[in-house]
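During the first year of the project, the team set up a workflow for recording each protein of interest as an amino acid sequence followed immediately by a discrete structure-token representation. This format lets reviewers and collaborators read both layers of information side by side without switching files. As required by the reporting guidelines, we include two representative entries from the current panel. The first entry is reproduced here exactly as it appears in our internal archive.
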Amino acid sequence: MADTLRMIIAVMGNVASVSLYAAPTVTFKRVIRKKSTEEFSCIPYIIALLNCLLFTWYGLPVISYNWENFPLVTVNGVGIAFELSYVLIYFWFSSPKGKVKVAMIGVPVLMVFFVIAIASAFAFPDHNHRKLLVGSIGLAISVAMYASPLVAMKQVIKTKSVEFMPLPLSLCSLLTCILWLTYGILIRDIFVAGPSVVGTPLSILQLVLHCKYWKRKVMEEPNKVEFQKENVEKMDLEIGNMEKNVTLSSNYNS
């Protein structure tokens, strides 16, 4: 019964996590359409990529006992594909300065992962020490990943708009945290449950900001339309006056 429950939670956690990884596709469709990264930050996606790499490695038999953490391998393997795609798209459409920023953050991150992977595979003789090393670093990176939306939340508070913090991402984040927290408790693995202890309240905070600022964009749109309408009316009036003056001038000359 306990094994069945763990499996159900693991499957649900996988589905929720894949949804979380897929949520930014809305953002990157906009980036591709506008050919600009606008005010979006690359940091959350690079941190998420490192997190996926570490927990995929953590779940493999090199670190864990056999395939005891197989659900981590499947979901984080999918996450690697998503996050790497986001980073590459961001790099392609960012400004020259933005490209330098991505490279300066992304290359050291990949180097850190390779150093950890090599050290854990060859420097430690048993699984316990390997899990402790990779799990501890993965836990710290996961906390950073769940804390990275603080950048977006700061932008939301500054602009009073949730435009750059998509709601699907916040909802998926909360659901994923709850499921993996439950799964980590069931298998008694602090390295699996730990990140969600931080991620859950941060995800709730994102939803609070959505509730507070979601009307802002809706309220601004009518004002924008009204402003454009006034400009059009002014232009029409000015054109009408110009045509009237030209006509009067023509009559006077004739």
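The second entry, processed by the same pipeline in the following quarter, appears below.
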Amino acid sequence: MEIVSFLIDFILHIDRHLEAFVISYGPWVYALLFIIVFVETGVVIMPFLPGDSLLFIVGAMCGAGLMHYSIAVPILLAAAILGDQCNYSIGRYLGPKVFQWEDSRWFNKRAFDQAHSFYERYGGVTIILARFMPFIRTFAPFVAGVAHMTRAKFTMFNVVGALIWVIGIVSAGYFFGNLEWVKANLEKIIWGLILIPGLIAIFGAWKAGRAEKQRAASSPQP
């Protein structure tokens, strides 16, 4: 429970924790940022780390002169790209062994073929949009690996998504993070960064599931 309480406090008050770390350890904060983003995007069991809010706060701290934008952005980009590549590789090479393919009751060959087809057709958009959705951005590259999306296609969209995600949110924090209204409502903004993309993802999944049921109901029975 203490760990959970600390994580919640860290996520909601990441500005204070990060500022304290900068004051205490200086340049080592860049190593901490790399580790947090790499682990969140690269390890499928760690989806709860504060990606979006972290990037925004980093941008705000760069705008306040506590960190360097030209150093933080490349480090965060490297962490985001390498993290997704790691997660994809875990899914691609360990996923089949975990499911034991056709010998396992957990493996559905038809579902696998459908997932593979989906990621080949729409996986690029999924990888990019998932960057802005907590939890989903951790699982999307893993599923892409399990579905055997080609590495070249995955890498291309991984890099594009990372560029939009990192530069977009860090820059938003840089230009707007130090406004008085933003600082006064920072906790609400952090909650928004967590909840709004999640609700959008849930709604999208519900809508897709409903559409699938309607297609199944309208399909002629054999």
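For the second entry, the following points were noted during internal review. The chain has one domain: 2-100+107-218. The CA atoms of residues 41 and 83 lie 5 Å apart. Both points are flagged for discussion at the upcoming steering committee meeting.
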